Amino acid sequence: MNGANGFCIEPIDLNQFAGKDGRIYGYKGLKIEVWLNCVSFQAYADIVYESSSDCGKGITDLNQILQSIFGESLIENKNDFLQMFSADNDLLRHVVPLGEVVHCEASGEKTISFENHSEKGACSEEDQIVVMDMGSMHVKELYNHLVPFLLLLVEGSSPIDLDDPKWEMLLIVKKKVDGSGNTHHRLLGFATIYSFYHYPDTSRLRIGQVLVLPPYQGKGYGRHLLEAVNTIAVSRNMFDITIEEPSEHLQNIRDCMDTIRLLTFAPLKTILSSLFSRLKEERPQNSSIAFKYFPPKSLVGEVRKELKIYKKQFLQCWEVLLFLGFYKISASTEIFRAWLAAKVEAETFDRGEISAMKKCVIDVQNECGHDKTFVMVRFEGEVSPEIETGVLQKDESGERERKEEMEKFIEGRLKEIKAISEKVSLHCENLGIPISVA
User: Fold this and answer.
1) Which of 95-99, 118-122, 159-163, 322-326 has the lowest mean pLDDT?
2) CB 170 within 8 A of CB 208
3) Per-domain residue ranges for the chain?
4) Is 430 exposed, middle or buried (0-12, 13-18, 19+ CB in 10 A)?
5) By CB atoms within 10 Å of each CB, which of 2, 60, 127, 314 scores lowest?
6) Marked catalytic residue, from 72, 76, 244, 353
7) CATH number, span 92-245
8) What is the CATH number of domain 3-83?
9) What is the pTM of this model?
């Protein structure tokens, strides 16, 4: 509906929004086209179907489904929707000036059109990231109109509480000043962050939602949003940064970004240099590395303090850094795989404790007379012969299943680390950052 400025996204299954059983009933040849206005961020739905009939399960109320997704941003009349493209309804024009600019760079993107604006002279474009609190009526209105993007494009997402003053929103926009001096904005993506108390006298920053709109994905805007969050956390001296249930893709972006930051962190570079010098000399066998090559506790604290990377995230990046170093030294992943297996084993089980305990199943009866009721228990030390030959049975398959699950996890994690290390190497090459971990 908006010519060259329009874009399409992949079809989305709306069944997930259709009540308890997640199914739409009563329609043949149903097709719903939803148009979203990039100026007012309001929506219009065009519903087409061949026929409808009640086949015993009723006819689903499609308007109710659409209202549950789009709320007040859904406009029923098509002509009213088209009128919302006027400059008077430009939400970004009211919202962007309310925020604080935390990132700004000249735009290299030439594919975004700002047609219908007069261009009498030269134009300038730049990408900006602004952060703002949710107190303004215009900011709340914009966020409410962006919620449908979250519901449709981010699995398991839900709106934030706009009445909680600790929520903030980051917008990444393309700002253009035309030849007449008029400013226009195009929304590329957004994120929400939340500050919460950390004992005794600091605050942590949690990333609640991150979404880059479909036509701008794969261009680095998601990374820019995360970098802006880092800038905010450092400037406010937050304790650290966490992400609420990140998708696999978002976590991979963060792993790449934080690994690159760590490669330029002087204290870590010194420790890695020493560690890999020792590795070259020792050439350890797989069985001898179980408790080697873990980061010092002091480094974990220093990384958190200076870079705001919390412990779990740092340890994931540490795996990537070690992979880069191990592979550079031995041109093989064998030693690293052995180290990763030892690490997972150490994190999951205390082997000394496990070897001293036995898992047994006790058949018990209850008042209902069920003959398949049981209790599973662990015994520390030796189990008496009377117990072993009585109602207890050893769980012989448990150890085997545990090992199979661990092997599966290690192989999956190794695949992830390889992919991240390749991206890190490519980014470092493009940015001119030397990977001097070995």
Assistant:
1) 118-122
2) no
3) 3-83, 92-245, 272-438
4) exposed
5) 2
6) 244
7) 3.40.630.30
8) 3.90.360.10
9) 0.80
